[in-house]
Write a structure and sequence with these properties.
It contains six helices and seven strands; from the N terminus they run βαβαββαββαβαα. Strands 1, 2, 3, 4, 5, 6 and 7 form a seven-stranded mixed β-sheet that branches.
């Protein structure tokens, strides 16, 4: 987003370095507020789950912003929350608990197609910290993983990459050599549907 066109104070409610890098493709003037909140889900559908969690993250950031002693600004605030899950055969795969959990996830993904879904929530907060408007949406990308030998799975686990990532892999890292194709937005698998989010924010400017 060009600085001269940006009419909001923009906040990314995420501590993910990957999302921060991707959001830099949308705006070159934003801040990060990590929203530590208890995650509560009421659905098992990836699109619903990710939207619920992204909304909770954005709302938690809004609470923190409202508590700022010098909150009053010359512009409204736009908060962006996001959450990504991997799902296959109706089962959602979160971040692995340990090596054994990561191995089972990768074994399940091997040789199959799965979904990477990112939910995004936009919150517009006024100069007094009150939520004025919100919108949530989800984008899904189909990811094809080639058949992996057990030795290849173990070798990937040895890299340490899987343990902080949904589905136990990072498409932008060494696991990329096992991806045989995708259908949809590549950036969405990394953590943000950049194109859709850019269009949504542009419409508000």
């Amino acid at each position: 987003m060009d600085k001269h066109k940006q009419s909001f104070r923009i906040v990314l409610a995420s501590g993910s370095p990957r999302r921060k890098e991707l959001f830099g493709m949308i705006s070159d003037e934003f801040e990060v507020i990590v929203s530590d909140c208890e995650e509560v889900v009421t659905s098992t559908a990836p699109e619903r789950v990710t939207q619920e969690l992204s909304r909770q993250k954005a709302e938690a950031a809004a609470v923190r912003i409202a508590a700022e002693p010098d909150l009053k600004t010359t512009s409204d605030i736009l908060i962006v929350g996001a959450d990504t899950v991997v799902s296959i055969e109706g089962k959602i795969l979160g971040k692995p608990k340990d090596r054994s959990d990561a191995f089972e996830m990768l074994r399940l993904l091997s040789g199959k197609k799965h979904k990477a879904t990112t939910g995004v929530t936009l919150l517009r907060v006024n100069r007094d910290g009150r939520i004025q408007w919100q919108k949530s949406f989800a984008e899904t990308t189909i990811v094809c993983v080639d058949h992996m030998k057990e030795s290849e799975i173990q070798a990937y686990l040895d890299t340490g990459e899987p343990y902080d990532k949904a589905g136990a892999y990072g498409i932008q890292g060494l696991f990329g050599r096992h991806i045989s194709g995708i259908e949809g937005d590549y950036n969405n698998v990394v953590g943000l549907p950049v194109h859709r989010l850019y269009k949504e924010i542009s419409a508000l400017m």
